Amino acid sequence: MRGSLAELRGPAAPHPLDARALAALAANPGCRRRALLDGAGVDKTVLATALGTPAAFGQSQFAFMRGHAFEARVKADGGRELLRLLGPEEPHEVSVPDLAAAGPAGRAARTALALREATRAGGWTLLDHPMLALEVAGSPAYLEPDAVVVHPDGRWTVVEIKSFPMIDGAADASKVGAAARQAAVYVLALERVAAVTEGARVAHSVLLVCPKDFSNLPTASAVDVRKQLSVTRRQLARLTRVEEIAAALPEGMTFDVEACSADELRAAVDAVPHAYAPECLSACELAFHCRERAREAGAVEALGRSVRGELGGLTTVDAVLAAARGEAGDPDDPAVAALRRAAALRAQALAEREAAVCR
Ligand code: SF4
Is the CB of 272 within 6 Å of ligand 1? Predict the structure, then answer.
């Protein structure tokens, strides 16, 4: 075994794994690079900047403040506003327990206790920013949903509060999809607690709260996350254990941005296998770095997973071009045959155009 995960990270405080990161990890379970960096608590935004390929996404300070103000509005009136969106006619009594405790592990234990007490009590309870624990690739991850509501019948509902608008009752499908994947991670973590809590069950439908039309009035919609839940469960179980990935690294390697030059960091990052796909551009801070490497290697993955799937055994752009030119590849391979046919059609089209220009 090489250095510990803390040594890989350096003296910086561990960057916590959140549900968004876990959802992205679950979307690309073959990427050892992301699994290791996330497992070691490396801040990938800082690392990407040090590599000279800063991430191109993230929330602006303005959007953050706006989101914060909207969330406060949704949770106003001691949680009654939020419960109204959830459906009960007029919830008179809403309990909002204090979840403060020292450190994430302490807060997760406090949350589990509050969930048990609320379920036993049988009323409406709003858990504001509870802390949930989930083991991922052998490392604990602590997750903080916006809220969890405990129903009088023992049901627990995850609440996701987003600042993108819901117009005429519908929001941007890609944003709803991302919120559903994130919420599925919370549901998964909550199920661990529910499994040891008598009378509890986790709703597989989460409450998505957004601003209504172009106002800042909250509106809500129930989102079924069963599909996302089963994908996330399966993908997270497939992740290689972080220690196993770390054990294959060269001795003394570190991602410490303070102690290493850009070249040393590049060598360290490139020592860990990656699985770049264009989807990384909207999900991972290291996307520009990995895309550069995938392009340098001529990997067909850089063109997209569906293209990669259609090309079968041809894994590089050079191999694809050689197959299309008839210089390599098995002509009985359907991918090679399709490439040669496409190349012949292209040559024919170019020849016809040239002939038309000369006339
Ligand atoms: S950008 Fe790189 S590190 Fe991030 S998930 Fe994609 S391949 Fe993995």
Answer: no
Residues 103 and 214 in one domain: yes
Average pLDDT over the chain reads 89
Q: Tens digit of pLDDT for each residue in 121-175?
A: 998 999 999 999 998 777 778 999 999 999 999 999 999 999 899 998 888 888 8
Per-residue pLDDT tens for 62-80?
A: 777 888 889 988 888 888 8
In a shared domain, residues 103 and 191? yes
| Domain range for 12 | 5-58+241-310
Query: Residue 157 maps to which CATH number?
Result: 3.90.320
Task: Give 38's Cβ-side CA count (13 Å radius).
Answer: 31
**Whether residue 285 sits in one domain with residue 167:** no
Beta bridge partners of 156: 150, 202
**Pocket probe mutation, ligand 1, options 33, 270, 293, max atoms within 8 Å of Cβ:** 33
Nearest CA to ligand 1 atom 3: 34
Report how far residue 354's alpha carbon sits from residue 359's, in angstroms, rounded to the nearest whole number.
9
Task: Report yes or no: 181 and 227 within 8 Å, Cβ to Cβ.
Answer: no
* CA angle (146 as vertex; 143, 149 as ends), nearest 5: 105
